[in-house]
């Protein structure tokens, strides 16, 4: 069921700066998480012309969780891309990613994977966000919610036999884990997602621990200047995947920081972001999505 459907004209505007009209006044940064304000002047906006785009409800057992879905208008059987949020939740940037993918012909859906723990977009301090919400989200819950999202897409007539996943930052790690979980996936693209780290009750295993279980080819996109993800760890998972007979390609962009595709933040790097986006599209197509 669609809730709060967006009309095609509501998010239109000049590409290059994110604005929303409210009472005739342009409000920069509308829809973005409080912890990333103010947004950059280079922020990309993708309109919803030609799309069916807006919030939907995904049934997970006895619970219902929100998701943002964008798909080509009139094409129920589009191939599916699961879009996994950054640490900041399903805010405007992730919704824009869904619209960009829908413009390419995909059914793109981003589920609010922190929904049970709280609203990440309303927390202004990143430390508090991690402590109060992110650290309390179990991997098992996330995987189950993504399974339910696939089932929802199938119920809408989308082509889940041509299923891919992509995710960013926190979602990049989840992309690896889901590729190690779902045998129905055709392709995965992880943007600067951790592959190893400390273990606890919420995150008992990391992608490198489960690499032999990969169900589909994975493309990893990383920045050499990412202070939180050493290049050596991406080399390690590539070696482990090769040893296990799995198809993994790692691209590391020189002098590039974490979150280089986040066009609303100072970390954005135009050349790497555009190259990564092109490589993602080619990876999907090469692997049947």
What does this structure look like?
The chain is of the alpha/beta class. It is 26% helix and 25% strand. It has one domain (2-286): Rossmann fold (3-Layer(aba) Sandwich). The strands form two sheets. Strands 1-4-5-7-6-8-9-10-11 form a nine-stranded mixed β-sheet, with helices on both faces. A two-stranded antiparallel sheet has the order 2-3.
Provide a short characterization of the protein structure.
The protein has six helices and eleven strands.
CATH topology: Rossmann fold
Instruction: Kindly provide the name of the CATH class.
Output: Alpha Beta
Structural class: alpha/beta
Radius of gyration (CA) equals 18 Å
CATH architecture: 3-Layer(aba) Sandwich
Strand order of the largest sheet: 1-4-5-7-6-8-9-10-11
Order of helices and strands: EEEEEEHEHHEHEEHEH
Q: How many structural domains does the protein architecture include?
A: 1
Q: Could you tell me the strand content as a percent range?
A: 15-25%
Relative helix content: 25-40%
Helix/strand layout:
Elements: E1 2-5, E2 19-22, E3 25-28, E4 51-60, E5 63-72, E6 79-84, H1 92-103, E7 107-111, H2 126-132, H3 139-155, E8 159-168, H4 170-179, E9 185-191, E10 218-223, H5 231-243, E11 248-253, H6 270-286
Parallel strand pairs: 6-7, 6-8, 8-9, 9-10, 10-11
Antiparallel strand pairs: 1-4, 2-3, 4-5, 5-7
List its salient traits:
alpha/beta; disordered N terminus; 6 helices; 289 residues; Rossmann fold; 11 strands
